Amino acid sequence: METERFFYISVILCLFCIFQVRGQDDDPCKGVVCPRGQMCVPYMDSGKSYTTCECPQDCPEESEPVCSFYHREFNNRCEMHKYACAHDLTMKVMNQGNCPTDNLHVCSDQFLLQFPTRYLEWIMIAREHSIDPTTSLDFNARADGLTEDERNEILSWEFEYIDRDKNNVLDTAEIQDVFNDVLGYEPCLYGFLKSCDLNEKEGIEKREWDFCFPKTGTAFETRK
């Protein structure tokens, strides 16, 4: 009987340890996708756990440098999100610590702030030309006047064009094809597409693709 008692106690203690570890690893923000620089913030309400996406207002002063995929360095992760939120950008950490000195995809601040809108305008021009190849390419076209429906149609057209296997995810090989075509003369594209994969799963899903581009209206202020 004493042996059985110790056996059951051991089982209970083992299960208790497992649940403790699970509780420690249970991150409510895991898998949460927050758009354009916002950070996932967990909170409790009536004993239940919830999450919300917010732009950080104040960041800690301690130095824990991070390097974004745009090859821009920040004092800590919070500062990166604060910068991205202020400029309506999607930005992601490439590595902890300082940025490597041999990175070939450096995107300057001036081009970084304009790139999401410029990319949307490129897609808009390409789509119009594909609809009517007889029209000349209008490189002065601007996305400022797009409606939300027009914006969504343009982004869907480009997504479907890149998504060759039609699985609704831009996978690594498909993204690499875009890099091969454009990266040589547009270094900001590297940071843009790398930052679009927000949920840490391989590839860019449609919702992530949409989050990466500016919305209509106030989203185009950086071009004015």
TrEMBL record:
<dbReference type="GO" id="GO:0005615">
    <property type="term" value="C:extracellular space"/>
</dbReference>
<feature type="domain" description="Kazal-like">
    <location>
        <begin position="54"/>
        <end position="101"/>
    </location>
</feature>
<dbReference type="GO" id="GO:0005518">
    <property type="term" value="F:collagen binding"/>
</dbReference>
<keyword id="KW-0964">Secreted</keyword>
<dbReference type="GO" id="GO:0005509">
    <property type="term" value="F:calcium ion binding"/>
</dbReference>
<feature type="domain" description="EF-hand">
    <location>
        <begin position="150"/>
        <end position="185"/>
    </location>
</feature>
<keyword id="KW-1015">Disulfide bond</keyword>
<keyword id="KW-0732">Signal</keyword>
<keyword id="KW-0106">Calcium</keyword>
<dbReference type="InterPro" id="IPR036058">
    <property type="entry name" value="Kazal_dom_sf"/>
</dbReference>
<dbReference type="InterPro" id="IPR002350">
    <property type="entry name" value="Kazal_dom"/>
</dbReference>
<feature type="signal peptide">
    <location>
        <begin position="1"/>
        <end position="23"/>
    </location>
</feature>
<dbReference type="Pfam" id="PF10591">
    <property type="entry name" value="SPARC_Ca_bdg"/>
</dbReference>
<dbReference type="InterPro" id="IPR019577">
    <property type="entry name" value="SPARC/Testican_Ca-bd-dom"/>
</dbReference>
<dbReference type="GO" id="GO:0050840">
    <property type="term" value="F:extracellular matrix binding"/>
</dbReference>
<protein>
    <submittedName>
        <fullName>Testican-1</fullName>
    </submittedName>
</protein>
<keyword id="KW-0325">Glycoprotein</keyword>
<dbReference type="InterPro" id="IPR002048">
    <property type="entry name" value="EF_hand_dom"/>
</dbReference>
<dbReference type="InterPro" id="IPR018247">
    <property type="entry name" value="EF_Hand_1_Ca_BS"/>
</dbReference>
<dbReference type="InterPro" id="IPR011992">
    <property type="entry name" value="EF-hand-dom_pair"/>
</dbReference>
<dbReference type="Pfam" id="PF07648">
    <property type="entry name" value="Kazal_2"/>
</dbReference>
